[in-house]
Amino acid sequence: MLIGVIADDFTGGSDVANTLAKGIDGEGGLRTAQYPGVPTGPAAPDIDAGVVSLKSRSNPVEDAVRESLEALKWLLDQGCKQIVFKYCSTFDSTPEGNIGPVADALAAKLGARGVVVCPAFPTTGRTVYQGHLFVHDMLLSESGMQNHPLTPMTDPDLRRFLRLQTEHAVGHLPLSTVLAGSEQVRAALQGAEEHYAVTDAVSDEDLLTLGEALEGAALVTGGSGITLGLPRNFIRSGQAKANLPSAEGIQGPEAILAGSCSGATRGQLAEHQKSHPTYAIDVPGFMNGRVTMDDLLEFIAENTGNAPLVHSSGTPDEVKAIQGKFGREAVAEKLDALFADTARALVQRGYRRIVVAGGETSGAVAQAVAGELGSPAMRIGAEIDPGVPVLTLGEDQPISLALKSGNFGAPDFFTKALRIMEGRT
Would you kindly state where each structural domain of the chain is located, as residue ranges? Predict the structure, then answer.
């Protein structure tokens, strides 16, 4: 294994695995596998890039650091020459959050300085300029992320925000240096007095420049975009052969589970329900025991073949009201468990294609399905939309998963995902 990635949630893991597997158009990427949690055994010998997906984004800091260091040890044991700490392209965290402490711990173990901090993903509208994070043409704090139920992002200045989470100095690598080329970037990082460098990037070309400059860097941090140019370094040096992911084409019953409350997911739900059955979970009823997993399974069974969708999504005001009544963590934990139990039951009943929306929901579902199959490695298949690939688990009766971050995907994502899972374009 050449590149090892520690992802702080499961949709982010799929996102970066997709980027590494796809590589640069016309060149190809690396043979990539995604693992739900830290594996207990060695990776397959033909894997070039391994992505360990944790559920550490919203965990207590101590737990996030411990799990990340466990993942680091496993990846180093597999022979990884470069480590990537992958967090969300919207820098999902809190002032007391985990990005800084995890980066500090990884950097200390690897002896890394001048570490790049770059969540940019221009393909999906995330750019960094003057050290500030933008979503399309809006600052992060005005993009809707300020209403996130778990990690509300109210400050777009990544330098200022990261300084709240680390004792190390945080500097800035401006766009002018990136545009000057990879040698200038490399020199700036090597000569930086600060421990971290929030790095501007507004295009894929900027990311490719950074990728070239980061050849040999022990630690890289950012969104999936920062890995765009990394496979090229290993392919050009002859350490890996270019590879292209392909669709396996899995037939069988289908279900869609949506736990995201993002504006993008709500729009996708509205589009889906125009021509497909949807079931809105009565969250207060569920918290009070009136709604159970059997209600969800019954709805899915009655509508199998017509892309049935079950969701717990709501507007920011609706979510705040429910959290105020039952507690934010209690609602999140119980809903994650509900979706995980439902996914496990679906696999037991022969469902082969499961689409999931929402980072926390995806993590719960992925762990449940992997545990049911006893197969920790997920193969990376065809891309559905930017940042979202088809994942395949198991051998004799494989299961196809699509794990979508709340803000990702086109309006018709759900039906498109089920179609591509079958091997149809």
Answer: 3-236, 254-421
